[in-house]
Amino acid sequence: MTRSYNLEDVYLTVNSVLITEYADGDAITIEYDEDDTVENQGTHGSVMVAERPNNIASLTFTVKQGSPVNGFLWNLRRQKRGQVAFSFPIMCNDNRGEALISAAQAWIKKPPSLAYGTEPGDREWTMKISTPDIRDGENLLA
For 129, which of 10, 47, 69, 103 could close a Cys bridge (C-beta 3.0–4.6 Å)? Predict the structure, then answer.
C-alpha cells in the first residue's frame, strides 16, 4: 500500500490558532526531554535499569519571519508574564483529522532568536508540552 505525505496536510494549532507559513526543512519537531530509562552497571558487570517518568516533551516549529503567527505568539508570551501556571492547548493533526500530537497543557519555553539580514529569515519557536499524546502513523507512542 502506497501512502503519500504533504506538510500542507498537517495542521498545528496553538491555543486554537492555526500555525501557518512554515519555513523550509523540518517544520515541526517533537522530542521527549529525557530518556525513558536510566542504566547503571556495577563493578561486576550487573546492570540495573530504572524507568523514568517522562511526561514533558519539547515541540519546536519554524515559521517564516513575515508570518502573522509570530505576532500572535509574542502576544501570547506577553500574556503569560507573571503567571507561573499559564498554559494553553496544543494540537497537531493530519488531513484525516487524526491527532498526531495533542496536549491540554503547553507553554512557550523560549521565543525565537531574531536575526535581520539581506534576506528574510526564519523564526524557531520552542514549546513545552505536559503529558502529550503522540501518534506516529497508527501507533500511539505516549
Answer: 103
Cβ neighbours of residue 4 closer than 8 Å, sequence gap 6 or more: none
Q: Half-sphere exposure of 61 toward its Cβ, with a 13 Å CA cutoff? A: 26
94-107 pLDDT, tens digit per residue, is 877 666 888 999 99
Neighbours of 78 (CB within 10 A): 8
Q: Element (H or E) spanning 139, and its range? A: strand 139-140
**Can you give the CATH number for the domain in which 89 is found?**
2.30.110
Q: List phi, psi (to 5°) of 134.
A: -125, 130
Is a pLDDT exceeding 80 seen at residue 131? yes
How crowded is residue 111: how many other Cβ atoms within 10 Å of its Cβ?
Answer: 14
Number of domains in the chain: 1
Q: Is the dihedral of CA 89, 14, 78, 24 positive or negative?
A: positive
Quote the pTM value. 0.79
